[in-house]
Amino acid sequence: MNILILHNRFKFKSGEEIFIEKFSKLLEENNHNIFIKIYFKNTETIFQRFRLLFTQNFNLFILFELFVFIRKNKIQMINLHNPYPYISYSIVLLKLVFPKILFVHTIHNYRHFCANGLFYDNFGFCNSCQKNSLFVVKKNCKNNFFKSIFFMIRYFIDDKIRFKFKFDYFLLLNEYQRNYFFNNGVPLNKLIVFHNFLVNHTFNDNVIHSYEYDFIFIGRVFDRQKGFDKFHKLLTSNPNKRGIVCGELSNSLQFSNLDNISYTGMITNDEIIKFLRLSKYIIICSNSIEVFPNILLEAWLSNCIPVVPDFDTFVKLCGKNALYYKDLDSLLGINFGKNYSFNFNSILKKYSKETAYNILIENKIIYD
Questions:
Q1: CB-hemisphere CA count at 13 Å for 5?
Q2: What is the pLDDT of residues 309-334, one digit of tens each?
Q3: Residue 104's domain spans which residues?
């Protein structure tokens, strides 16, 4: 098949881009022709900022560009990832011109239901918009009154009019997502759970670990959503434990320095794997409902035990392959001195690339 992958990249590389890299490689290995178009947000000039007011709902330039590209390359399937701010859901209009093309949307967040995409309002879990979309403005979810109003309008146009019934399939990364989209009116036969997956299975059950760190935190330290404050309090309460932090730091870090925490700053994925293999527990402190963080797969591969919030998404993804906590007190109450025994081989097989490709074949999303 000739498959076109469309995506808007955010200001920093995220799990979405990593997923696209793995997904395109999986398809190429199975003899599909892959074309990738990734757009970047650019607001350097006044014109570019002004254009954003319109492109998020309708982008005639993108439509014309894709029309030419599709005809030239005989595209058979379009796989959309993040549509904002330039691609927009107006691309479904191409279905009027190319009715035989399969339109598949891979969903990485909950932006169709939530202004911040992960049911989070800078302080913790929030689901107010489901009760009334006016909450976007009332709670000022975008930290800007006019942006919040704009999101509410975009939400109505995209999610209430165009979005729900125009795509042939939605690829969702977990069962929680599927249930949420179904409960909001998307037909169940269009919702396919397509978990994040491993490109290579390099886990060796016989490796003898020499742990240098008790805990590892991976993520943006300055982002409240990632919950670094919990990790900091965990190490404050356990001065005899060692922690390592891998991720982007803020110039104005609002946490006191602790002798038992080391910081690496931004590092490569290979370096992250190295530190995971040197750590006994990875502490995931997210305050929001993560969809399927790549770091879970990397932790299991490294025989590093995940300690995660008891959100429904994590429970469904991890099953018995993680330790759970409800809040900060329960995190601090975990007995980290206990010798926990896990065998991650079975769950790694569940998230293998062979399993992922079979899902596409079985649901007739692609064909050889």
A1: 20
A2: 998 889 989 999 999 999 999 999 99
A3: 2-112+163-197+352-362
